[in-house]
Amino acid sequence: MTTLLEVNNLKKHFPIKGGGIIPRKVGAVKAVDGVSFSVQKGETLGLVGESGCGKSTTGRAILNLINPSEGEVFYKGEDISKLKGEKLRKLRQNIQIIFQDPYASLNPRMTVEQIIEEPMKAFNTPKKERKEKVDYLLNRVGLSSYHKHRYPHQFSGGQRQRIGIARALTVNPDLIICDEPVSALDVSIQAQVVNLMEDLQEEFNLTYIFIAHDLSVVHHISDRVAVMYLGEIVEVGEVDELYSNPKHPYTQALLSAIPEANPHKKKERIMLEGDLPSPSIPPEGCKFHTRCPFAEEQCRVKHPELKSVAAGDHQAACHLVKEVVEAPV
Ligand code: SF4
Ligand code: MG
């Protein structure tokens, strides 16, 4: 396995400005607060957590759509977190993003052909090649060249997401950051789009970071999953291991909310007390302590770091979970 992307202590703090004639910084929303993970070539890393936990901001900070406040992002070994201008533009050929609301990201005054062609124009692809690629990709995502002279409003949500996917593929990216790509779609359509994304991953050798709050969708598509809470990763591991053997109390609570398909199997739902605290004044110590059913005195003062908690590089950040040190092979 080769590491394609490595994110190291990534932070994005949005300053909060106070009133007055000269606004001054009075605090910061710590949307992403020290996130580290790596993505292997060809895999899908699921990024889950409640809305407001920093998943989307993490995705955007990787691509430099918003500048990270701190930390590094290595793509194929090169730090891309501070790239600007032409170098950043070039990078965007390798890393693409697809959004939750394809409607908002498709220009309503452009035809589908113009929309899909646009990234190729920016990279100076010759016209003939552009036209051929539009036809090929439209067919490949389940639409047809017959659709290319239409406008975004003439399509359904699922079709618009297919157009967004086609556009992302035009420049042959390695990595696609998928920011809740199916959350706005009907359940039946979600499955079709997820299946399409899996087929395309194979055909085009793609690596995905798949951001979502729906744990069932993430289970289906991911190889590994990282769980975020208030701007931090609290647990990460291989998908089946993490879903069957969650170690962090927050992951346990999230997973307990997935409806059980087998009616004979009883599942106890862990209800979390209280609301998600504000990311501008996160709790001290373990950020989850205000809602954790197992919180102890040390949790209020000491911040837990990610550590190995089971075989296969399964990590969690909780004081009560025992560290497991794997024997060297
Ligand atoms: Fe709960 Fe403490 Fe573990 Fe945080 S460190 S998840 S508060 S038990
Ligand atoms: Mg989001």
Automatic annotation (TrEMBL):
GO terms for molecular function: ATP binding. The keyword Mitochondrion does not apply. Coiled coil: none annotated. Belongs to the ABC transporter superfamily. Residues 5-255 form the ABC transporter domain. It comes from Pontibacillus chungwhensis. This is Dipeptide ABC transporter ATP-binding protein. Signal peptide: none annotated. Keywords: ATP-binding, Nucleotide-binding, Transport. The lineage of its organism: Bacteria, Bacillati, Bacillota, Bacilli, Bacillales. It comes from the Bacteria. Gene3D superfamilies: P-loop containing nucleotide triphosphate hydrolases. The keyword ATP-binding applies. SMART domains: AAA. Pfam families: ABC_tran, oligo_HPY. SUPFAM superfamilies: P-loop containing nucleoside triphosphate hydrolases.
